Amino acid sequence: MGSLTQSKLPVIDFSIKNLNSCTLSSWVTTCRDVMHALEEYGCFIAMYDGVSQELHDAIFLVSKDLFDLPNEVKVLNTSDTPSHGYVGQEPVVPLYEGLGIENATTAEGAERFTKLMWPSGNQGFCGSALMFAKAVAELDQTVMKMVAKSYGIEEHYKSLLGSTSYLLRLIKYRSPQDNERNLGIVPHTDKSFMSILHQQEVKGLEVKTKDGKWIEVDPSPSSFIVMAGDACMAWTNGRIEAPCHRVMMQGNEERFSLGLFTFIRDLEIQIPQELVDDDHPLQFEAFDNYKYIHYYYTDEGKRSKCPIKSYCGI
After folding, report:
1. The pLDDT value given to residue 3
2. Of 38, 153, 176, 214, which sees the most CB atoms within 10 A?
3. What is the pTM of this model?
4. Looking at the domain that runs over 4-312, which CATH code has it been given?
């Protein structure tokens, strides 16, 4: 299983003050720190004030209301894409329950989901979810601009940005009963392009380092875990690897978290020529992000040690 290590993930200041401090040097320094963290760990902790304490409190409050709905309402959250709708009561991960809002940064996406759960409306939920998704999407785009600039592939990123869709997943883990394992979610890499996770105060998220140790990620209202997904790993020609992570439940408190996942829709992701050279031969063919998700849920995809490599690796 690998042991827990005392080392920490890199923490990077994404406060508006730091990024707007008129000096190019703070942007350049942040950029350098981001690239080092992504190439070394595949993820980092962003201290980000684009989500206020009020919004943090509000989104977790309405999350609890959502999970208190009857199961027959929650299962109405379906999707054509595996694991984008309601997932719960699964024997492999009995503690886990999650719902997904597709196109979460659009008013239509937030409203469609809200109407489904609360036919008579729930403005508090709809407004908080939309505001939260938009604020976190801004962090995602800032990070991706830094990646694109550092690799000299800004034009490539612009075309991806135009085809980006955002899924907001609201997640709850109940505490394990007497005879249950404390595994919240099995070790995995995300099938997304990028993922940004935000935890309430209960710990549980662990990220695996390249040498096989697990780092526990402490939650705080202003900390967001920015994590590369498999699609980003292929797009950067393997320079950034998607990190393996899991959730281990401790104690007897329920744990709530939120994930904003970016996917590239209706566009084949091409690996930029600029990232292919003698030291970095081409590792991946062009691929479709959503077809890859479907592949992952086939028997072959589930068996694979590195699904993105077995899907479009060279």
Report:
1. 72
2. 38
3. 0.96
4. 2.60.120.330
